[in-house]
Amino acid sequence: MTLLSIENLSLSIRGTPILRDVSLSVGHGEILGVIGESGSGKSLTAFSVLQLLPSGASCEGRINLLGEDVLAKSESALCAMRGRDVGMVFQEPMTALNPVQTIGAQVAETILIHEPDTSKVDAMKRAAHALTRCELPQDKFPLSRYPHEMSGGQRQRVVIAMAIALQPKLLIADEPTTALDVTTQAEILDLLARLVREDDMGLMLISHDLAVVTDMAHRIAIMKNGAVVEEGGADLHRTMSHPYTKALFKASSHQPDRNVTPQDTPLLQVQSATRDYTLPRKSLFGQADKFRAVDNVSFQIKRGESLGLVGESGCGKSTLTRAILGLEPLQGGTILLDGQPVGPEVRRKMQVVFQDPYGSFNPRHKVARLVSEPFHLLGRKATEAEIDEALISVGLTPADKTKYIHEFSGGQRQRIAIARALIIKPELIVLDEAVSALDVSIRAQILDLLADLSDRFGLTYLFISHDLSVVRAITDRCLVMQSGKIVEEGDTEHLFTAPSHPYTQTLIAAAPTLPDL
Amino acid sequence: MLRYAIKRVGSLAISLIVASLVIFACIEVIPGDPASFMLGLNAQPDTVAALREELGLNASLATRYLSWVTGMLSGDFGTSYTYRSPVAEIIGDRLWISLPLALIALGLTVLIAFPVGILAATKRGSWADMSVMGATQLGIAIPNFWFAMLMVLLFAINLRWFSAGGFPGWENPAAALKALTLPAIALALPQASILARVMRSALLDTLSEDYIRTCRAKGLTQRQALWRHALRNAMIPVLTIIGLQFSFLLAGAIIIENVFYLPGLGRLVFQAISQRDLIMVESVVFLLVFAVIMVNFAVDLAYAWVDPRLRGRA
Amino acid sequence: MRSLIFGLALTVMFALGALVSFVWTPYDVTVLEIANKLKPPTADHWFGTDHFGRDIFSMIMVGARTSIAVAIVAVVIGMGLGVPLGLAAAARKGSLLDEVIMRGNDLIFAFPSLLIAILITAIFGPSAVNAIIAIGIFNIPVFARLTRGAALSLWTRDYVLAARVAGKGATRISVEHILPNVANLLIVQGTIQFSLGILAEAALSYVGLGAQPPTPSWGRMLADAQTLIALAPHVALFPGFAILFTVLGLNLAGDGLRDALDPKLRVMR
Predict the structure, then answer these.
(1) Sheet strands side by side (includes A202-207)
(2) pTM (whole model) above 0.90
(3) Which residues form the ABC transporter domain (chain A) (predicted)?
(4) Which residues of A fall within a CB distance of 8 Å from B3?
């Protein structure tokens, strides 16, 4: 008997159709991977199973869980089902827990809600057991901990412990590792796989990341625009027939063509850069502690080179980036751009593209003004021709300059961000997680654009990312950063195929990989 | 927790010192000197000199400030020029009307606002919510002293349920409470309207947080999620407003006393102003500021009780 | 949208009344006609007459001037000083300047406008200017805190970082990127402070710390009416309704503006 079967599910919210004819099934002990880009309806499919939908949503079709029709259940029957028969894990562990309650109380609540006769002591004991199963041992993570005392990965384990405390038959995980670092991601995925094995539980794993899902799913469903376009086994990459599936696999492992050869002259030189932060005092009169975010870092980028900087969150790569951009003072060392310290004169040779296509622009200005902002460095206004040229070079049209930023999609916004970086013809462009927030197909296009621009204008790139596959696709050389230090440096291909530092080895081993097509 | 408390005590002390300096400075900037100011234009020079001596105005600024502050610390607020008796005694009598009035009003505010705000949030969009939103809109707009006059008109003059004003003294607690009932309601209703709206919007905000969704996925009903999780988190903004409201209630109490002819701090300070009794004005103002600062301190400590993130590392 | 229109209509009505009163009122409010005192509302005197025989409708028109002028100037003072302070504090977050500005704000919050008015009156004597200063001073920390809070979250936006990469300084960024994006919030808060100013002015004139006779003001009218309330309730009713509807109109307009501009704005009550 299948555990969960969704048959011809259609969902509309206030009359707007969201899902069309979705049919999926999950068996006991089976992992179903559901893949889709943003807006594909994958998360709402998951929420339909729990019937936790936004107000105004209405479902048609059938959702059968353990032989019962979920859509026919009353609200109280649904409450009895949620947490007992189905557990759910969410994307954002930092906000998924109540900040003012201990983790013990929150895990125990799952038990107390469904088994009200349980004594509080008993519930706490079982909560401790669930947390231990999720690799949060009591000696290190007592029940009295509060969420703010834990890291993102640890919080995600608490959320999982809450979901599996009553050993439900089905677990739904909605992008459970998207907000986490690659090594943490690997641990969480291992944990989920282990729980599925131990409890013979079904798992519906929702992700935008093909590599994550193909690594562990037994079956894979691809969703687009509210419908399942293709479904197959773990070997979907061999059996796929739908053009969208093929395009998705292709985009995920996309490698843009690059034809520049780096010159021998260094453009950016970072020499023993050190950045300390003062921590809040522990006691009233004690010495204030210091945290060394960037520790004696030295490297250089040659003209025309594309250099990658990878590391997990908190490793100091953002601080280093800001120091290079001249936004943070250094406590030691120097940063030279074209042989000169970063100051008003050489700043114009360097521009930046940020991660978030939505937060990168002042919503009150038109594109022309947004794009021409760097001209402040030259002390003059941009000419119309210069604005047009910048927009055209990133694949937009001059007509776009009179629009406001909200009229553009995420991918188009990132093109505008690149246009803003290009407009004063800098030599170095710092790409700070510049493609991390984009869907894979858009990401492939932006990577192509970047490769094309570096060919045409002889640009030098510093590519900062937590995403190893992206760095591998577009850089010549790569630095690996850990705890404020550069632990390994080398040619990208060599570094990825034969990493020498143990941390690099861990990182590369942890990164989920796509099967070769 | 201890560190947080120590830090708060530190900033409490600084606030009090700065507030006392500000008030002291205000009185010092008076054109001419306080003694001739208090005595008016026709004062004889030797009377002024005598008063200067009595007020200690011949000492240096720092000495005067220090003796004022140390005096207050030991309960000596100086001697009122008009009443010819210690300020502390006079204020002490009057305080027992204004402070209870403000506290009763605060209690009423919370008692009314919490259930109403929670009701409106749980039944969002219903007729109950709509009528709460409409009534509170009126409650915010109504001047409390005018509302008090209307209540006097209705309950004292027409229905004769209450006397129109005056205070029988605390020897008869029931009568005293009765005399404070209308003033407290007049003070509380506008503030309760504000607090109910804050409560409602804070609850609705927390109900849209991710962790409420997590709770629902655990099997909690919307109602359980609200009572067990949303309410405590919503208390953080609500506490801030309650702290601010106390200072408005205290100030409001001073005004409302006029409507009900209550012999509280309000009547005292307005008389003192017209009689140019600076020492009295200075002392009353400082006392009120002291009360506001202490309440804000209590609110800060309450934050830490509600929100473990403020308690620092365990 | 309905509340915006209704609120604006009420506000405009009172503002027009105040403006018209400069050139015309049904009766001259400076002329006392004791023989005609305390007349209930009639066709001649829509709102009746007060204890000096003055037309209450005309008094309310003239009184609107005082209320509106005091409240507007107080908002201007609060915004004019509070917004730059808030912007500066946010631009130098964690610095000594920020600390001083924020502690100063906390301190002013301990002095409700009534206490400030009491201090000022004790020193300089009562006047409408006192009311303006007292309410204005209390408005400063409201705007400073609000601006700082909103500006702090804007300073972490990537577009501010981009502006810094483009070499722009803190002042320029505050003016170009921060201020336009907190403007909506300030407009909405401005209407709320405006309505609070009307209430505060009424309270101050009621206890004699605001506008002094013969300048008509709504609070003063209520103070005069208080002793006569049993005898002639209409004298107390109409000025109170004037305050109530002006404040209600401003609040509705503020709520409507917030919904029209951005429903997620966080204002302070």
Answers:
(1) A86-89, A170-174, A202-207, A31-35, A219-224, A227-233
(2) no
(3) 4-250, 268-508
(4) 283-284
